[in-house]
């Protein structure tokens, strides 16, 4: 881990405390004055209880940071408090920033579109001190993985809230793109604090022992699998060979960019941040740390998709999607580790996301309850994908270890 000088450490800690106090004051004033919703306001307070919760979370942040300075700490209190901070403080800061924008907007009659960009930039900047104090506290593997996952959830919630709180701010797509870039930067910063280096994003050359024929075979089957999902209209094995539709629908470029950055974020979180945390841990206690790390990170990747049930998705479809995501996670990780090129997993992930309902209407199998034919079809695909993955991870282990060696060498002794 990178260690700051004590005075710099204290400055960041004081900055975090000041942010929490400032957010408390702004939220308190907002709750007291209760500005009424209107089209010329950046923010509207439709739920007073929500802002009271944000106020309490801000005050809790001050209390926990002061408590962290003590020699003895209560682990349960800290654990629950940290989780509350991570889940609520990003939204609390965002609400306070929105409220602060009321004053120049109303005073100088500025447009909310103009203030949209400063709101997002200030929000992302405000997250760095919050992230810093939690990076300092997270020492164990479980704490670090939980921190990454909670922060991802909090960032998503805050991004959604930005669209809900703001009137005529920015399109949800622009908000999503900017938020995705901010999340990527912050997670990269967090990993550097823990002694990890980012993947070589400018590297496109395969590992020395990687065979282009093997890679082409794996990628070809992947394209067949997602192509079937996108263009096949068959509902039985009999119609599978002749019921196809190759129509691509028109989609705004910003939506495509948002989808690609979203795919990058998932790879950045699960195939970089979480995967390498696991590899670092298990290489000290296991004979096959790579395989174990790939499986665990993929299970977490799959479980993360279970939240789609909250969007009205059927439970059966969600379970099917979780299983699919676990298999896909193993496959993407194996491709990345075999080739040593992080972009391969991003491109394959993006292709799947673009073709599973965005560019091809009705392609997503999660739109309804999957029938028996599709369970059989995708089940066959999953078995083959796992066979390819374990072939790369086990039979081509020496090639996979080249990627690990490169990351270890670039990360120094802290890895």
UniProtKB/TrEMBL annotation:
<feature type="transmembrane region" description="Helical">
    <location>
        <begin position="375"/>
        <end position="394"/>
    </location>
</feature>
<feature type="transmembrane region" description="Helical">
    <location>
        <begin position="49"/>
        <end position="67"/>
    </location>
</feature>
<comment type="similarity">
    <text>Belongs to the UPF0177 family.</text>
</comment>
<keyword id="KW-1133">Transmembrane helix</keyword>
<feature type="transmembrane region" description="Helical">
    <location>
        <begin position="346"/>
        <end position="369"/>
    </location>
</feature>
<dbReference type="Pfam" id="PF02517">
    <property type="entry name" value="Rce1-like"/>
</dbReference>
<dbReference type="GO" id="GO:0004175">
    <property type="term" value="F:endopeptidase activity"/>
</dbReference>
<feature type="transmembrane region" description="Helical">
    <location>
        <begin position="177"/>
        <end position="196"/>
    </location>
</feature>
<feature type="transmembrane region" description="Helical">
    <location>
        <begin position="251"/>
        <end position="270"/>
    </location>
</feature>
<dbReference type="GO" id="GO:0080120">
    <property type="term" value="P:CAAX-box protein maturation"/>
</dbReference>
<keyword id="KW-0812">Transmembrane</keyword>
<feature type="transmembrane region" description="Helical">
    <location>
        <begin position="87"/>
        <end position="108"/>
    </location>
</feature>
<protein>
    <recommendedName>
        <fullName>CAAX prenyl protease 2/Lysostaphin resistance protein A-like domain-containing protein</fullName>
    </recommendedName>
</protein>
<feature type="transmembrane region" description="Helical">
    <location>
        <begin position="145"/>
        <end position="165"/>
    </location>
</feature>
<dbReference type="InterPro" id="IPR052710">
    <property type="entry name" value="CAAX_protease"/>
</dbReference>
<feature type="transmembrane region" description="Helical">
    <location>
        <begin position="114"/>
        <end position="133"/>
    </location>
</feature>
<dbReference type="InterPro" id="IPR003675">
    <property type="entry name" value="Rce1/LyrA-like_dom"/>
</dbReference>
<feature type="transmembrane region" description="Helical">
    <location>
        <begin position="12"/>
        <end position="33"/>
    </location>
</feature>
<keyword id="KW-0472">Membrane</keyword>
<feature type="domain" description="CAAX prenyl protease 2/Lysostaphin resistance protein A-like">
    <location>
        <begin position="252"/>
        <end position="354"/>
    </location>
</feature>
<feature type="transmembrane region" description="Helical">
    <location>
        <begin position="319"/>
        <end position="339"/>
    </location>
</feature>
<feature type="transmembrane region" description="Helical">
    <location>
        <begin position="290"/>
        <end position="307"/>
    </location>
</feature>
<feature type="transmembrane region" description="Helical">
    <location>
        <begin position="208"/>
        <end position="231"/>
    </location>
</feature>
């Amino acid at each position: 881990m990178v260690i700051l000088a004590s005075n710099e450490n204290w400055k960041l800690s004081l900055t975090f405390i000041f942010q929490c106090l400032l957010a408390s004051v702004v939220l308190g004033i907002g709750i007291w004055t209760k500005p009424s919703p209107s089209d010329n306001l950046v923010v509207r307070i439709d739920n007073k209880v929500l802002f009271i919760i944000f106020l309490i979370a801000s005050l809790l942040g001050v209390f926990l940071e002061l408590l962290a300075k003590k020699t003895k700490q209560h682990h349960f209190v800290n654990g629950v408090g940290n989780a509350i901070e991570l889940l609520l403080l990003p939204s609390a800061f965002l609400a306070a920033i929105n409220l602060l924008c009321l004053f120049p907007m109303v005073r100088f009659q500025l447009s909310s579109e103009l203030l949209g960009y400063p709101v997002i930039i200030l929000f992302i900047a405000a997250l760095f001190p919050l992230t810093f104090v939690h990076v300092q506290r997270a020492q164990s593997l479980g704490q670090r993985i939980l921190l990454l996952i909670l922060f991802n959830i909090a960032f998503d919630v805050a991004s959604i809230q930005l669209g809900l709180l703001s009137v005529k701010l920015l399109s949800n797509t622009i908000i999503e793109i900017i938020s995705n870039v901010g999340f990527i930067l912050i997670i990269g910063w967090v990993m550097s604090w823990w002694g990890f280096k980012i993947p070589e994003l400018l590297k496109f050359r395969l590992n020395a022992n990687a065979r282009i024929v093997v890679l082409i075979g794996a990628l070809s089957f992947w394209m067949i699998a997602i192509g079937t999902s996108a263009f096949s209209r068959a509902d039985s094995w009999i119609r599978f060979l002749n019921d196809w539709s190759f129509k691509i629908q028109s989609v705004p470029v910003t939506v495509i960019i948002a989808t690609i950055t979203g795919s990058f974020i998932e790879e950045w979180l699960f195939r970089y941040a979480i995967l390498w945390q696991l590899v670092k841990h298990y290489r000290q206690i296991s004979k096959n740390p790579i395989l174990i790390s790939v499986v665990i990170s993929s299970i977490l990747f799959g479980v993360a998709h279970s939240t789609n049930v909250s969007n009205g998705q059927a439970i059966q479809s969600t379970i099917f999607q979780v299983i699919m995501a676990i298999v896909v996670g193993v496959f993407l990780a194996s491709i990345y580790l075999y080739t040593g090129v992080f972009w391969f997993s991003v491109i394959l992930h993006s292709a799947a996301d673009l073709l599973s309902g965005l560019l091809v209407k009705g392609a997503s199998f999660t739109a309804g309850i999957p029938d028996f034919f599709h369970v059989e079809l995708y089940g066959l695909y999953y078995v083959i994908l796992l066979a390819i993955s374990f072939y790369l991870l086990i039979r081509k282990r020496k090639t996979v270890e080249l990627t690990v060696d490169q990351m270890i060498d670039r990360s120094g002794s802290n890895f």
